[in-house]
Design goal:
The protein has 333 residues and is of the alpha/beta class. The protein has eleven helices and ten strands. A six-stranded mixed sheet has the order 1-2-10-7-8-9, sandwiched between helices. The protein has a four-stranded parallel sheet with strand order 5-4-3-6, with helices on both faces.
Length: 333
């Protein structure tokens, strides 16, 4: 499911306030009467760092969002719409970060929330979901088992599925808007991100494509998405053009441990159309990046470390942006 929508860009550009993703309100497909459900998400810092291998890279620090992950962007836009529709309660399935984001924004907006999670999800993430007042349903088995379990509940309660609700990706596309604005309204040469169910990568493609279409930037960056080699269905499908290669795998990067992504076909199509690429990194490289970046001062969870490991694999230096997707407190060393 997607939304056919052309953003409206003010002739004078976007307003300087608020200092949140809602500065791009004109680029979001929400009725002007909708009051945002917000925790101040967006406009996260973007700082230049040197990778462990000494390569210069911009880090888009979305791990400092209100709930500690980029998924606050999608949840803010999605829950704003649902509250406007007077939806009283939602169900969601998540490996942790999306569940925490949806739970927090439901709490802020006054919606009841139940999140179905794999029983193997990190304890810190499950505790965070519960802290926002949401009910948690622990489901034995892989990530896909939680997705299957929520279907029954969705017969009677609105399913706020971050992988299927198109307003979620409308929120995540604002990462691209911010990166371009923070670079003086131009695109970087390369943008690197982790890839599981694809809500960030699809948002990046959507956002940069819109900015090109309205003339705010002149060209698309090369978008490179990384998976763990231990669970890399989209890497193998990208290379072979065969989506039947999806098989379960176990990885330290629990946020992208998705054997059969719901949006798999769309992800492959859009990355190819954008002339992007899907790669993988080893578990050893993820572990090393997770620790090496922490001692440099950047504490992220292993899923974010997948993209950080990818930077040194690409051997890029200068004019590259890597998105730090989740905070290290979600899965301490």
């Amino acid at each position: 499911m997607d939304i056919e929508f052309t953003p409206s860009i003010p002739g004078s550009g976007f307003p300087r306030a608020p200092q949140s993703l809602w500065r791009y309100r004109a680029a979001l497909p929400l009725d002007p009467a909708v009051t945002p459900v917000t925790l101040g998400e967006g406009m996260t810092p973007m700082e230049e760092w040197k990778s462990p291998a000494g390569r210069r890279v911009w880090v888009k620090m979305d791990h400092v969002q209100p709930t500690g992950s980029f998924k606050d962007r999608g949840a803010a836009v999605m829950i704003s719409r649902l509250r406007a529709l007077e939806i009283p309660a939602v169900v969601e399935d998540s490996s942790g970060n999306a569940g925490a984001a949806v739970a927090a924004y439901c709490a802020r907006g006054g919606l009841a929330c139940t999140v179905y999670v794999p029983a193997s999800a990190p304890a810190a993430k499950i505790a965070q979901i519960r802290a926002y007042g949401a009910r948690v349903k622990d489901i034995d088995g892989p990530r896909e088992a939680a997705a299957a379990a929520v279907k029954k509940a969705a017969r009677t309660t609105y399913y706020a599925g971050h992988c299927v609700d198109p307003f979620f990706i409308q929120g995540t596309k604002t990462v691209a808007y911010e990166v371009a604005e923070q670079l003086g309204w131009r695109s970087p040469r390369i943008v690197v991100a982790p890839l599981g169910n694809g809500t960030l990568v699809l948002g990046l493609i959507r956002g940069f494509s819109e900015l090109v279409s309205v003339g705010l930037i002149t060209e698309m960056p090369r978008i490179v998405a990384f998976q763990s080699r231990a669970c890399n269905p989209l890497v193998r499908a990208f290379v072979s053009h065969d989506t039947d290669l999806f098989v379960p795998g176990t990885t330290l990067a629990d946020g992208i441990a998705v054997a059969r992504p719901v949006l798999g076909d769309r992800i492959l199509t859009e990355i190819r159309r954008a002339k992007g690429e899907i790669r993988d990194v080893s578990e050893a490289a993820i572990q090393a990046a997770w620790k090496q970046w922490a001692v440099k001062g950047l504490s992220v969870e292993p899923t974010a470390a997948v993209a950080l490991a990818g930077i040194d694999q690409l051997k890029v230096d200068n004019d590259a942006v890597v998105v730090a997707t989740g905070h290290g407190l979600k899965r301490p060393h």
